[in-house]
Amino acid sequence: MRTSSIIIFALLSLSLVACDDDEKNTNNINNVNNVNNVNNVNNINNINNVNNVNNVNNVNNVNNVNNLQPPDTVAINFSIDDSANGTYGEGELFWKGNFTADPETHLLTLDPTWSGPYVQLYDDGPWTSGGHEPVGAVAEDHVWGVTVFLAIPESDVVLEYGATDDLGNWIWSGPNGTVTIPALGTEPITAAGLTIEAFGTTDWKVTLDTANLHADFTYDPLTDALTLKGDFAGWSPLPCPDDGTAGDDTANDGVCTFVLSHYVGAGTDLPHAGLLAAGEVVSFLFQIGDAEYKYGGAACLEGVTSWYRPDGGDWTSLEVTLSADAWSNLSVTIP
């Protein structure tokens, strides 16, 4: 009987050991599954990481495509510095000349008629870094620029140009700019740009006495608009009232008056223009109806009187002369 008990106890022990081993095996299998699951998660993460890298690379490739220079072209740079006044915004400055450019490829096409569309300037950084400006430009510094591309010419090409604002006003100073693209040249070319000088604090007044016009001109206030235009305002015609408003001293006395401060600055029709600085030369011209106040190709001086007024000062007489350029407009120099 004792022997049977021992045998039964031994068998029970073996059974327990076997069960324990089976449990351990099950746990081991579960552990292996857990490891596999972790590996699977890691594999998924790795795949996601690869996909993310590919997505970044795809974005970079798209950016690189956008920033590619068209083959067999030469780069041409141009800028306007508005940092002194900072009055211009996106879409308000254009490079105008005997050419136009595709807004997508920035490829320049010659156009001797200057008919546009004109080349928009930007303040978004270099074209090589996702912007439109020349290499080395700084975004949002109020220096507006662009880089365009011209097919490498077989002979010299001369670009002639100036600049306009979004209102169509001609803002270029002096003679038209020019730049020569040499035959077979591949090195980048920078066309001379424009720096818009800081506004001053001096106001300016000019009048035209319609009772003392040049003999070849007449003026009827009922039918003729009398306006003044000049380089200080992009040559846009501006009113010269004779109704006692906007700086006119006496209504209906036949003396039509223009006072600069009534038409320039923030909140006016000319937000990109301002008062004048000492030494500044202003070129201008009256217009009566549809006719410029000129005779024999030169502006008329008859009936014209001018003054200037420094900030906090009084109106002081200012000499009016003919401009020294080929246009023979009227001119004053601010003391």
Strand-helix topology:
Blueprint: H1 2-66, E1 73-81, E2 93-97, E3 99-101, E4 108-110, E5 119-120, E6 143-151, E7 157-165, E8 177-181, E9 189-190, E10 194-195, E11 203-209, E12 226-230, E13 238-239, E14 255-259, E15 281-288, E16 291-292, E17 294-295, E18 298-299, E19 304-309, E20 316-317, E21 321-322, E22 330-333
Parallel strand pairs: 1-9, 1-10
Antiparallel strand pairs: 1-6, 2-5, 2-7, 3-4, 7-8, 11-14, 11-19, 12-13, 12-15, 15-16, 15-22, 17-18, 19-20, 21-22
Note down, in words, how this protein is organized:
With 335 residues, the protein is α+β, with helices and mostly antiparallel strands. The chain is built from one helix and 22 strands. The chain has one helix spanning 2-66; strands at 73-81, 93-97, 99-101, 108-110, 119-120, 143-151, 157-165, 177-181, 189-190, 194-195, 203-209, 226-230, 238-239, 255-259, 281-288, 291-292, 294-295, 298-299, 304-309, 316-317, 321-322, 330-333. The strands form six sheets. Strands 12, 13, 15, 16, 21 and 22 form a six-stranded antiparallel beta sheet that branches. Strands 1, 6, 9 and 10 form a four-stranded mixed beta sheet that branches. The longest helix has 65 residues, at 2-66. 27% of the residues are buried.
Which terms summarize this structure?
335 residues, 1 helix, 22 strands, 4-stranded mixed β-sheet, single chain, 19% helix, 6-stranded antiparallel β-sheet, disordered N terminus, 29% strand, alpha+beta
